[in-house]
Structure formats: C-alpha cells, structure tokens
Design brief:
The chain is 26% helix and 24% strand. By secondary structure, it is an alpha/beta fold. The strands form three sheets. Strands 3, 4, 5, 6, 7, 14 and 15 form a seven-stranded mixed β-sheet that branches. Strands 10-9-8-11-12-13 form a six-stranded parallel β-sheet, sandwiched between helices. Strands 1-2 form a two-stranded antiparallel ribbon.
C-alpha cells in the first residue's frame, strides 16, 4: 500500500454463528479527494465493538465499506469546520482514509489534552466510557456508598464503569470476567473490590459469595444467567442498566428469560436499556469530569491495542472471543500508545 492507495474492509457474507475471517475482504482504492464541505482524514485508531457482530446479521450491506468509531488526522480539507492537522472522531471506520463532514454522522473535531493518549478518545473518553458514565449517572443514578455489580467487567465498558464508579464514590464494586487473569486485573489494577470467573459455577452463587450483603445497582453487559444472578442479589428498589447481551450475540437461540424475572415486581426493581447515542449531549460534561483524573494518572485507559490496519478483522474476532482486557483497538502501524505531550 502506498500513500496514494486506501484499504477498505467489506463484509462479503452473513455469518452462521461465530464470524470467520472469510466473511470479510480487504479492497484497495485510490485515496479520495475531498469535495466541497468535506475533509480527508487519515485514520490512526479504529474501534472494534460487540455491536458490530449484531450489524453483521443485516445492519451492514454486503460488499460495501463498513462503519465503526475511528479517530484520525485531517490531511486535506474543504470543510470550513475542519483544518489540516485537526484530530477528528468519525464513524467511517474499517478503512485507512475517509471523507467526513463536521457535524454529519457524528463527525467532530476532538479536544486534545496534554498527557492524554489519543486512543483514550476511542476507549474511556469515547463511546465506551460515555456508555459507562451515562449508565452510572443517568440510568442507575448511582449514589455514593451504593454497591455495584458489573458483568463482563474486564471489557471496555466494564473497566470504564469500575473506574468511573470509584470516582463517583461507589461502595463495594463487584465484577465478573472470563478468566482468573482478568479477575486479578480487575481487583489489582482497575479498583474492583471483588471479582469472579463466571466459569467457576452458577453466577447467582458466585455473586452471592462476592457480594454477600447484596447490591444496589447492576450494569449488565451480558444478559442471560448474569441477569438472573443480579436480580437475585439486588436489594429492594435496586436498578439495572442493560447495556449489552454478549451471551446471545453468536447464537440464533437467545438464552431463556431469567427464571426469577417476576422478582422485578416483588423487589420493586427498575430495568432500563442504555443506548449511548441517546446520551451524546453528555460528552462535554463527561470530559470535564474525567480528563483531570487522566492527566493526573489517577485513571488510565484500559486497552488492548493491535497494531496494523491489516489485522482489524483478527482484532474483531479476538474481541468476540474475549482475548482483550479493556477496550480492543487497532492502531496504524507505528502509532503505539503515545500520549499527547
């Protein structure tokens, strides 16, 4: 590939169950030139997310460029709102170069903060962190001293939720993860008070042991048995913020509803879904809250970075298999994890 050639990923087949590399294809095209009102962005970091798996079943058109959260630098512009050198967030991902227009499809110039890594804008400062922040502050309305349970706690949203909940003054924070190594990461690095490997037994039993006095709030990234276990541990008037359902993404048959679902009535629980696109107005508030903690080093961005755009499909499939700790990102070769100086 030269600077005159762009790489784009297309989905070329619908997966039957777990996706494979053969469902995707890399194509080459000339680097586009910006038209009136457009800016050409050379992409630096790409996000691969669980929702991409859902899109593969029909949300994405076959043999067309894919979309995804991305950050890059403007290299040429005919958009009055963007100038060469600007750092830009946009959704025309899964390609090395993109044409964007400020304000269209979420494209916006990013505020650059000294000492904060660029990739933070796709992890704890981006949609991942904003999802956790909105779920905790708006959906759960978490109060100081309240006890929280987070499923898939070692993933992007889960690690962000643990760090943000600690800043909000949460009481006991408990998480579930998929390996003993991830459990240690949560308790030793992220700030969880307790964590368990959900492979070690029924979630309801593991959670009752990890949070023996119960929980006030649950941030759900999994669904299925995790939701059932959380309902069992929630105290009266507890709250559930349902963010994702990784337990059912790769199966045509979703797990059965929690057998104790009627306890939502008996305990006066509240369950509400969380869509980050409905909370984009919180971005400025969120950055004002979190950036000082990132700059001081009190909070770090939990990421697994795969270098090389040519490995984006590998990174996506690895994320679905749980091979990441924190947010799974892809970096342009040579980018690494450098902070702005």
């Amino acid at each position: 590939m030269t600077t005159h050639t762009a790489l784009v990923v297309h989905q070329i087949a619908r997966p039957a169950g777990f996706p494979t590399a053969s469902d995707f294809a890399f194509t080459e095209a000339p680097v586009p030139s910006p038209g009136p009102g457009e800016a050409l962005v050379e992409n630096l970091y790409w996000s691969v997310d669980p929702y991409h798996r859902e899109q593969m079943d029909g949300g994405w058109a076959l043999s067309s460029p894919l979309e995804g959260r991305t950050i890059g630098r403007v290299v040429a512009s005919r958009d009055a709102g963007l100038t060469e050198g600007d750092l830009v967030f946009h959704r025309a991902g899964w390609r090395t170069h993109a044409l964007v227009t400020a304000g269209a499809d979420g494209a916006r110039r990013l505020r650059e903060y000294q000492g904060v890594p660029l990739f933070a804008h796709l992890s704890i400062l981006g949609g991942t962190g904003l999802t956790a922040y909105a779920a905790l502050t708006r959906t759960l309305r978490l109060q100081a001293g309240e006890d929280l349970f987070v499923s898939a706690a070692a993933g992007g949203v889960g690690t962000a939720a643990g760090r943000i909940a600690r800043l909000l003054g949460a009481g006991r924070i408990t998480g579930s993860a998929g390996s003993a190594e991830k459990v240690r990461y949560l308790t030793e690095r992220v700030g969880y008070d307790a964590a368990f490997d959900y492979h070690d037994g029924p979630v309801a039993e593991l959670l009752a042991k990890a949070a023996p006095t119960g929980i006030d709030a649950y941030l759900d990234n999994v669904g299925g048995g995790h939701l059932e276990g959380a309902i069992a541990s929630l105290r009266e008037s507890g709250r559930i913020a349902w963010v994702g359902a990784v337990a059912q993404y790769n199966t045509a048959e979703p797990p059965p509803a929690p057998r104790n679902l009627f306890d939502v009535v008996g305990k006066s629980l509240r369950l509400e879904g969380v869509l980050v696109r409905k909370h984009v107005a919180l971005q400025g508030e969120f950055e004002d809250f979190l950036v000082p903690h990132l700059q001081s080093g009190a909070v770090t961005a939990d990421v697994t970075v795969v270098e090389g755009f040519e490995r984006i499909v590998e990174a996506f499939l690895g994320m679905l298999r749980g091979q990441n700790t924190g947010k799974m990102l892809v970096a342009r070769s040579g980018m690494g994890t450098t902070a702005l100086q």
